[in-house]
Amino acid sequence: MPMNRRRFLTAGVLASAVLTASACGGGDDDVAGGDGGDTTLRMIVNITPNLTEQFWNELFDLYEAENPGITVELELTGTIEAEAKLQQDLAAGDPPDIAQHVIPNPETAELFVDLSGEDWAADTPLFEDYAIDGKHYVVGVGEQIQSLVFYNKAAFEEAGVDATQLQTIAQFEDAMRKLQAAGYVPLQSAGQWVTGAQFTMLADAGVLTEDPDWVVKRKDGETTFADSGYLRYFELYESWLDQGFLSQSALGLEYPDGQAAFLEGESAMYIMGSYFVPAADDAGLSDQIGVIPVPTDGEYPPGQFGNMAQPYTVVEASDAKEEAIDLVEWLVTDEEAIEIQLAADGNLRKGFSYDVSSLGEGVQAILDASPMVIVKQGERQPVHGYAEELNTQVQSLFTGSSAGDVATNLDTWWDSQR
């Protein structure tokens, strides 16, 4: 395969290709672990508005040029999450070699290679924060912060809103009323994973800044969603829907559509992670958009909910683990590869800088002023499946569930996972 080409295969096509090769009694030289000197590494990747197929193509063209005999073959997740795609492939007996954006937990750690013995791994961002029982199964390129409110400067000026005064929930709600009166949807949301993620970006900044060990206490049965600060945020969300601050039709939008609606000026504010910055840059709108930390009734500025940016895992069932580890090492240690990946998604890493817009500078200033980066990993990692269940429960507020029901349902679900 030429180095400037990339094959995109669904799980069904991959399975068919493997069966065909077996039936013909050949083809081993073209797959991972073959004896002919050439190796194909299959990697599960997410495609996003920033991490496009073109992005992945160009990134791995660089690696292939430096490593003759290695071909990187991308598996796209399609409409499912990366972890679900991995489980699908494993169940089919057709494991990939590497997974991007899959975070191991105590129940799934055995599916991945322990990278603790790799001397390069310890210097990667948030390495210790993601440890599981002292072992390290995932490494990343940088850090993301996500408790951010991006806002349309023109909309704020038209509505008479001063962004520097939006620190408390009451101030934030007053601003939404003014923006609504000026003809804007105050707060942009969307379906898919966006709904629950935005709730997390907002609520975690408040609850976990006040009590960083809240998740540990929830695991130990010392607190619940219904009897903690999370109920307050469910109530806020329900109220914002009732008042039209959030559009009831938002669930019908996919992630790129919600982002586009904000960029096109249909809405005034957008809670999203630092990875929104490149989208604004690409649209030529960075100077027209401002950014502030999410509001809170507690410490201000609050901690920033954050995570490992561009995480990679090597799949234990891979037939080419050594080659896969080498590729992952390149992704997280090669200076050119790091800068390309940081810039693509607006991420940060100590010791690395790249040209950023005024909006990117605003995000950096927020990180610099934040009292902490809230990382829900290690002992502070929620029970497996929490993000998906939270997303489902938050979306139920759009269809008539009450805040109290959502909190109770989430507690019931959490306790059933123990």
Automatic annotation (TrEMBL):
The keyword Repeat does not apply. Residues 1-23 form the signal peptide. Pfam families: SBP_bac_1. PROSITE patterns: PROKAR_LIPOPROTEIN, TAT. The keyword Lipid biosynthesis does not apply. Gene3D superfamilies: Periplasmic binding protein-like II (3.40.190.10). It comes from the Bacteria. Keywords: Signal, Transport. Belongs to the bacterial solute-binding protein 1 family. PANTHER family: ARABINOSE-BINDING PROTEIN-RELATED, OSMOPROTECTIVE COMPOUNDS-BINDING PROTEIN GGTB. This is Extracellular solute-binding protein. It comes from Jiangella rhizosphaerae.
